[in-house]
Amino acid sequence: MSQHKSNLPQEAPTLSIRGVDLWESWLSPVKQRQILEDIRTIVTKAPLLEPVTPSGKKMSVRMTSAGRLGWVSDSSGYRYEANHPYGTNWPPIPQSVLEVWELLSGSVRSPDCCLVNFYQPDARMGMHQDRDEVDFKQPVISISLGDEALFRIGQKTRGGKTDSIWLRSGDVLRLGGEARLIYHGIDRINSGSSPLLKNGGRINLTLRVVS
Ligand code: MD6
Ligand code: FE
Predict the structure, then answer these.
(1) pTM over 0.90
(2) What does R_g of the chain's alpha carbons equal in angstroms?
(3) Which of 83, 94, 104, 144 could make an S-S bridge to 38, C-beta 3.0–4.6 Å?
(4) Is the CB of 107 under 6 A from ligand 1?
């Protein structure tokens, strides 16, 4: 069997734009709250960080990870590390999150990393490719929780035509196949658009096979 396809029948996305698949409202409110509880546990063990880009800019999104490897950024560059910068292991990826990967990724591998991104109302994420992983045949799965966010979908090279979609609490998105290396980013958060997080904001989880 190939390393990136499973035998599971694939549930059809509700929206597909140039190979980017979106399952809108895929997670029920109960599941969303369960995942949120699991993220609170992760953040207790692996506190949120304020990463700095290799060029020295403080990112507006706060981050931590779960899994065998965590994604970090500092003046030495973007990379995956086996430990949180404070020296501890990353907590395990919760079952509630692994289930999403198993049902929608189409991969027979398990994810090595669940990156946790926390957006306050003024946070954003510039256009980027996810390319710190080894095998680009493996998809990236993203889960959105809390306030809705405007997600911009670009091309496989910088510049060119873009499409924008709102990602809402409970939506699951997949970058795979031809769309795996497209540029993408978050232009803005619509503060107060979801009741999930008491103090507002947005959480995005991205699941990846790293190596
Ligand atoms: C976000 N997402 O939704 C940022 N990357 O906050 C990503 O950067 C992303 O949604 C790879 C695959 C899916 C994504
Ligand atoms: Fe990304």
Answers:
(1) yes
(2) 16
(3) 94
(4) no
